[in-house]
Write a structure and sequence with these properties.
The complex is a heterodimer.
Chain A: H1 3-16, H2 21-38, H3 42-45, H4 49-60, E1 71-82, E2 85-96, E3 100-104, H5 111-119, E4 126-132, E5 135-138, H6 150-160, H7 165-178, H8 194-206, E6 212-216, H9 224-239, E7 243-247, E8 259-262, E9 276-278
Parallel strand pairs in A: 3-7, 3-8, 5-6, 6-7
Antiparallel strand pairs in A: 1-2, 1-4, 8-9
Helix pairs in contact in A: 1-2, 1-4, 1-9, 6-7
Chain B: H1 2-17, H2 19-35, H3 41-66, H4 70-76, H5 81-109, H6 116-140, H7 144-160, H8 174-185, H9 189-217, E1 224-227
Helix pairs in contact in B: 1-5, 2-3, 3-5, 3-6, 3-7, 3-8, 5-6, 5-9, 6-7, 6-8, 6-9, 8-9
Classes of the chains: A alpha/beta, B mainly alpha.
Chain lengths: 281, 230
């Protein structure tokens, strides 16, 4: 990572941590001046950008985030069994407009199942989900058509909302650009790398401007830069009032979210009612 | 209407890009025709029709299986189940019609003396039945291997069963065989009308079956309540 990349990552980190825009600009400008005048590797001078952003936040604090809006997603008492095995018991989650909720837990604890139930793609054995507004869903994998181009995916999704081809293509390309991907080429989805394919998947889920966005570990195969862009885009969507639920196993990102739903069972043989913890203060 | 046409168009684009599949789609009826070429004409034309039916059904099966992951998210994006299955069927019928053209011309080039209107009707029936037939199998059996084996079984039964027996009418492609008999053997008009009626009824039943399965699979779940944005 060169100095420019380091500064870009620092900017994104400060934005995600909700450092006031003016203060963030000032910090980045100071760091850039320091590097220009003093030279040296930013990793040696300042350390990792994430760590430096953390130190900045501790020093100058963050801007108050926008007040969470009305409830957009309310899942109550979700229970799901596969045969005799109960994968979810009484899971409950409420997410408001402008909040990010993380669903965490061990492998096989029902994270994806919970998300599919919230999306209405699977029925629970008990419980109900109320969604206010339009729903977007990004699966962990799949969900794209092997022999179609990215533009054709955008047209397909756009047509569902009654959006004409041109605007759908432009909206798709613009959303892809937010993830650092130029999507206009004539490459079929099957020829895209795993990470790029997930970018397509993610772009498709945000294309319909959903009020509630459900993401099932969408960053599989992302490189570091894209991963930063991904969280940056989530922050932007949150600031625009989208309620976001993201399934993740990367616990180091939990300070960026507002709510954490842990679905890990308490005991081998039983469950505790899943707790909801506050994430980001 | 735009959604229906978009799904049909994308189905068509996907299939046209599968060049290997297209080649096999063309090769299969050709092989069926040539392998019976030395026997009398009726046999080779019937084999050709069965080949077209089998090829289009297989394409429909693969298209349906490939769309299984995509369809739920298209449903969330604003499509209703009928946009998805009717659009796909429309795309498959178009592909079927396109691949039928060379097989309509083949006996003509081969100098076969038959009623070509009948051959066209038989090809139409074959394609009309094959698309919903393959889609229904694809919707009921999620894995391609099982679906392909079931298709193989049906086509084998169709090939071996006595066409005059009552059981033959239960096979999906009986209509095209009946019409082919009229076209090749110059039989009475009854063969044509029976064949057309059978083709129409079977196509309608299979399409209804596809609609029923898709409506159940892509239904709006009862646990999910949608409220307008407050």
């Amino acid at each position: 990572m060169n100095a420019d990349d380091w500064l870009r990552t620092l900017t994104a980190e400060l934005h995600q941590r909700r450092v006031a825009a003016d203060a963030a600009r000032h910090v980045v400008a100071e760091a850039a001046t320091h590097l220009r005048e003093g030279g040296g590797d930013p990793w040696v001078v300042f350390g990792p950008p994430q760590q430096y952003a953390g130190a900045v936040v501790e020093s100058i604090g963050t801007a108050p985030g926008p007040r969470p809006g009305p409830v957009r997603l309310h899942a109550a008492g979700i229970t799901k069994r596969y045969g005799r095995r109960t994968v979810l018991r009484d899971a409950t989650l409420t997410v408001r407009a402008g909040q990010i909720a993380a669903v965490v837990g061990a492998n096989g604890c029902g994270k994806s199942t919970f998300l599919r139930i919230c999306a209405g793609l699977m029925s629970p054995d008990a419980g109900e989900v109320t969604v206010s507004g339009r729903l977007g869903y990004c699966p962990q994998s799949g969900g794209t058509a092997d022999f179609l181009l990215a533009d054709e995916h955008f047209v397909l999704i756009g047509a569902g909302q009654g959006v004409a081809r041109g605007p759908a293509r432009r909206a798709g390309r613009a959303a892809a650009r937010q993830l650092g991907w130029e999507a206009g080429g004539d490459v079929q989805a099957r020829h895209l790398s795993g990470g790029t394919r997930q970018k397509l998947n993610l772009t498709m889920s945000t294309l319909s401007a959903p009020d509630v966005l459900l993401l099932d570990e969408p960053y599989q195969g992302f490189d570091q830069g894209t991963y930063v862009n991904f969280w940056d885009q989530l922050s932007r969507l949150r600031d625009a009032g989208t309620a976001i639920v993201v399934v993740t196993h990367l616990l180091n990102q939990l300070d960026r979210v507002d709510i954490v739903l842990d679905l890990t069972p308490a005991h081998e043989n039983g469950w505790h009612a899943p707790g909801i913890q506050g994430g980001r203060p | 209407m735009n959604r229906l046409v978009t799904v049909a168009e994308m189905t068509l684009r996907e299939l046209l890009r599968r060049r290997g599949v297209l080649l096999l789609l063309l090769l299969m009826p050709l092989t069926f025709y040539l392998i019976r070429r030395d026997a009398y004409l009726g046999q080779s034309v019937r084999s050709l029709l069965l080949g077209v039916g089998w090829a289009v059904s297989t394409a429909a099966l693969f298209a349906t299986t490939a769309a299984r992951e995509l369809e739920p998210r298209l449903r969330l994006a604003g499509y209703r189940p009928h946009h998805l299955y009717l659009g796909r069927m429309l795309g498959l019928w178009t592909v079927g019609l396109v691949i039928s053209v060379p097989f309509f011309l083949l006996p003509m080039i081969d100098g076969a003396d038959l009623r070509y209107g009948g051959l066209a009707a038989a090809l139409l029936c074959s394609v009309a039945v094959a698309a919903p037939f393959g889609m229904l199998i694809g919707a009921l059996l999620p894995r391609e291997l099982e679906g392909t084996l079931l298709l193989l079984t049906v086509v084998t039964v169709q090939m071996l069963i006595d066409p005059a027996g009552s059981g033959a009418r239960l096979t999906p492609f009986w209509s095209s065989r009946e019409i082919a008999t009229w076209a090749v053997d110059n039989t009475d008009q009854g063969y044509l009308s029976r064949g057309l009626l059978h083709g129409l009824v079977v196509t309608a039943l299979l399409a209804l079956g596809v609609a029923a399965v898709a409506s159940v699979r892509l239904r709006r779940r009862r646990h999910l309540r949608h409220l307008p944005v407050g």
